[in-house]
Amino acid sequence: MKRSKFTEEQIIGILREQEAGAKTAELCRRHGISSATFYAWKAKFGGMDVSDAKRLKALEEENGRLKRLLAESLLDQAALKDLLSRKW
Questions:
Q1: What PANTHER family would the database entry show (predicted)?
Q2: What's the maximum distance between 2 C-alpha atoms anywhere in the chain?
Q3: Whole-model pTM above 0.85?
Q4: Which residue among 59, 71, 76, 84 is least enclosed by CB atoms within 10 Å?
Q5: Are 58 and 23 found together in one domain?
């Protein structure tokens, strides 16, 4: 997945500018983003503070790590079942 060139703090700052009254089209042009990107950010980060965004990122990383651990354990379990089901 492509990494954003904007940090969560910058994204929230851009959203705050729009909440303060700046026009969306002008913000998108000034920061070099599309309006679709802006509205996707607004859906994800709208109403958040910087601390909330950092906490969300930490939780997403932990969730991904736990999903990888679960997938590895399920793979090991399937391999053991396959090995034990074979007749010698």
A1: LOW CALCIUM RESPONSE LOCUS PROTEIN S (PTHR33609), TRANSPOSASE (PTHR33609:SF1)
A2: 75
A3: no
A4: 84
A5: no
**Do 41 and 8 share a structural domain?**
yes
In tens, the pLDDT along 68-77 reads 999 999 999 9
Which residues constitute the domain of residue 28?
1-48
Separation CA 34–CA 47 (nearest Å)? 20
Rounded Cα–Cα distance for residues 54 and 8 (Å): 7
* Residue 80 token pair: 């053991």
11, two tokens = 């994204």
What is the C-alpha to C-alpha distance for residues 80 and 15, in angstroms, rounded to an integer? 51
Question: What pLDDT is recorded for position 70?
Answer: 98
Q: Which amino acid is at 48?
A: M
Angle at 50 between CA 46 and CA 53, to 5 degrees: 65
